[in-house]
């Protein structure tokens, strides 16, 4: 188990302790840090804390709505900190505002009010690490979600999503105020370890790798282009009522599991994330690869996220390929 794993304290329904003024939101940095770690497996970055302080200045009652004049809705961690109650009290906070194709490495915290599919999130390779980037995606379909790194500051995310109508002086002043508060504040630790390989969602993977012994990573037998083409053929066969040819997929999964057994978690991590980000039909296969791999890497919290994410009622409405292959 990860050394960072902790017992959750008995918090209020809002998911955070009350502030000294009696409101559900709080300015206590220690409480903020604690709640983000326990509920989102997320380290509080300087930028996040700076934005939270600004939001409280703008609207203490509903701070997560303070930037809607810019077409920006704060969500996820900011809903929790602002005391917004969850739609389903039984659903953990780390699933709150999580898009169906958000991998465990991403915590969505901001989306466009006019188009909720456009979203930004904190990205980190392990739950105990400070986020290394702000990433954005605008996936509108059920398949093939990709992310782009928009920068290392929260201001970069604001710039990406903000919309100010010509002549809207109030919105322009608000944007200037946000820029003053955030433009020089990093997202966190901006130095990311070298990526061991790319992924279909474009964020890549980082795992411990010994170049001398070549322990930690081995490549897939298919290139990204070949893998994308093969997975597309499986979906096309399903959509046209034909029998998909799963032999290559079974082979890839088998070799990935062998790689895990032999100390090369990079391969199953890449394959699992590629399957997860490509289509809902691959959810079960992705989870079966990712959960043990995350635990092997000491990223236990990510295993919890992927297991909860893929087990949701929304996912069970889709017939996964592993069910078709009688693997469940």
Please tell me about this protein's structure.
The structure is a single chain. The chain has 328 residues and is an alpha+beta fold. 39% of the residues lie in helices and 7% in strands. The protein has helices spanning 29-40, 46-58, 77-81, 154-161, 169-182, 224-239, 247-261, 266-278, 283-296, 300-310, 313-316, 321-324; strands at residues 72-74, 106-112, 119-123, 133-137, 148-151. It has a 5-stranded antiparallel sheet. A hairpin with a 6-residue loop joins strand 2 (106-112) and strand 3 (119-123). 43% of the residues are buried. Residues 1-23 have low confidence and may be disordered.
Q: Provide a count of the helices.
A: 12
Helical residues, percent: 25-40%
Q: Which band does the percent of strand residues land in?
A: 5-15%
How many beta-strand segments?
5
Distance, first to last CA: 26 Å
- Report the major sheet: 5 strands, antiparallel
Mean pLDDT: 86
Summarize this entry quickly.
By secondary structure, the protein is an alpha+beta fold. It is 39% helix and 7% strand. A five-stranded antiparallel beta sheet has the order 1-2-3-4-5.
Name a few traits of the molecule.
alpha+beta; 328 residues; 12 helices; disordered N terminus; single chain; 5-stranded antiparallel β-sheet
Task: Produce the secondary structure layout.
Elements lengths: L28 H12 L5 H13 L13 E3 L2 H5 L24 E7 L6 E5 L9 E5 L10 E4 L2 H8 L7 H14 L41 H16 L7 H15 L4 H13 L4 H14 L3 H11 L2 H4 L4 H4 L4
Antiparallel strand pairs: 1-2, 2-3, 3-4, 4-5
């Amino acid at each position: 188990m990860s050394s960072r794993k902790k017992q959750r304290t008995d918090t209020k329904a809002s998911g955070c302790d009350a502030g000294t003024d009696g409101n559900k939101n709080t300015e206590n940095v220690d409480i903020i840090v604690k709640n983000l770690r326990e509920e989102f497996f997320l380290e509080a970055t300087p930028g996040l804390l700076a934005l939270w302080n600004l939001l409280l200045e703008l609207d203490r009652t509903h701070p997560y709505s303070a930037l809607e004049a810019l077409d920006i809705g704060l969500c996820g961690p900011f809903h929790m900190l602002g005391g917004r109650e969850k739609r389903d009290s039984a659903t953990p906070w780390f699933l709150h505002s999580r898009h169906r194709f958000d991998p465990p490495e991403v915590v969505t915290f901001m989306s466009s009010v006019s188009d909720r599919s456009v979203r930004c999130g904190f990205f980190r390779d392990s739950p105990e690490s400070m986020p290394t980037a702000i990433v954005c995606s605008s996936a509108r379909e059920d398949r093939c979600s990709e992310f782009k790194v928009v920068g290392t500051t929260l201001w970069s995310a604001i710039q990406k999503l903000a919309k100010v109508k010509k002549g809207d002086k109030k919105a322009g002043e608000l944007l200037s105020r946000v820029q003053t508060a955030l433009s020089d504040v990093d997202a966190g630790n901006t130095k990311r370890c070298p990526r061991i390989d790319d992924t279909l969602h474009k964020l890549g993977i980082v795992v411990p790798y010994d170049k001398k012994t070549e322990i930690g990573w081995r490549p897939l037998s298919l290139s990204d282009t070949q893998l994308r083409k093969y997975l597309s053929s499986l979906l096309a066969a399903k959509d046209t009522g034909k029998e998909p040819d799963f032999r290559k997929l079974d082979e890839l999964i088998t070799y990935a599991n062998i790689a895990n057994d032999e100390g090369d978690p990079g391969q199953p991590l890449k394959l699992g994330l590629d399957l997860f980000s490509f289509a809902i039909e691959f959810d079960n296969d992705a989870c079966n690869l990712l959960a043990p791999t995350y635990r092997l890497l000491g990223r236990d919290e990510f295993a919890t996220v992927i297991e909860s994410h893929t087990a949701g009622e929304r996912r069970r409405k889709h017939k996964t390929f592993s069910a078709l292959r009688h693997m469940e």
